[in-house]
Design goal:
Helix content: 40-55%
Strand content: 5-15%
Number of helices: 13
Distance between the termini: 30 Å
CATH class of the largest domain: Alpha Beta
Length: 288
């Protein structure tokens, strides 16, 4: 298994432990990640500002992967959703695709639609497979109750992303259960983390985050689990601010799935970047 590794912008700049943990875990599972210095922003920040620039940014990255004969593995759900949306629009509008390709041609590139874009959770579940993951897990984290946060951009719109059932998803829950942990049911499971509104409408953003955290606690979860930099930043850094302001009664640590899986594969927490998480996750490690 070999993929062009698209880390995106947020992960290297603000959440490097997500990239490090992913590289360690995927490497041990036989997934070959190829770095591409030519990759740039996926276009996500432009989606509601300039639709053509949004599509051009996404298409450029996909054209580079096509030129190199590789499919793309994405860490960020926003990036994943962006690429899938761009593929959908360009496939359905020939004149738009031709216009984008005229612009790409100035850089010697062309987008043909051959590249596959896959999120890390899908690679683990479908490409690596549950059997291989079960063999790789050497430490069962029994007793840990986890609130799986699916995120919005992987699940919806489902006809475009094709990630999982948008109403009753199970992929992430099954990946969590492979570690020996329990994936709990919780009322806010499929709701937004609040990240898209951070810096736009902070009161509503914070309220969405608080609702998610309180729901997880009410369900008996010991932690949240994410696979998106925006969601993790919301549940980690923003949660820390809410706690410091007295706007949350209790902390609910959030761990990235590659960190959780890595611990159960016997990888040291220091190597997985656990100390870089803002909310103390010692309560999670106590179950090992």
């Amino acid at each position: 298994m070999r993929y062009a590794f698209f880390t995106g912008c947020q992960t290297p700049a603000r959440l490097p432990q997500y990239e490090h943990a992913s590289r360690l875990v995927l490497g041990r599972l036989g997934v070959d990640l190829v770095d591409c210095r030519e990759f740039t922003c996926c276009g996500y920040p432009l989606r509601n500002v300039d639709q053509k620039a949004f599509l051009l940014s996404a298409a450029r990255n996909m054209a580079i992967a096509e030129r190199d004969g590789r499919h793309i593995l994405v860490l960020c759900q926003c990036g994943f959703g962006t690429f899938k949306e761009a593929q959908y629009q360009l496939k359905g509008d020939t004149s738009l695709k031709e216009e984008i390709n005229r612009l790409l041609g100035q850089q010697g590139l062309s987008y043909e639609g051959r590249v596959e874009v896959t999120h890390i959770l899908s690679v683990l579940y479908h490409a690596v497979g549950r059997e291989a993951l079960n063999k790789a897990v050497t430490i069962q984290i029994s007793g840990l109750k986890v609130a799986a946060h699916y995120g919005c951009h992987a699940l919806r719109p489902s006809r475009i992303t094709g990630f999982d059932d948008p109403i009753a998803p199970s992929l992430f829950d099954e990946l969590i259960r492979i570690t020996g942990a329990e994936s709990v049911g919780w009322s806010e499971k499929l709701n937004c983390c609040g990240a898209p509104l951070t810096g736009v409408n902070d009161p509503i953003s914070s309220e969405l985050t608080r609702n998610k955290i309180r729901s997880g606690i009410a369900a008996g979860a010991h932690c949240l689990c994410t696979a998106c930099p925006y969601c993790q930043l919301q549940f980690d850094q923003v949660q820390r601010r809410l706690l410091s302001e007295g706007r949350l009664e209790k902390a609910l640590p959030s761990i990235l799935y590659p960190q959780l899986l890595g611990l159960c594969m016997g990888i040291r927490g220091e190597d997985l970047g656990l100390k870089q998480n803002y909310i103390n996750i010692d309560p999670i490690r106590s179950f090992l």
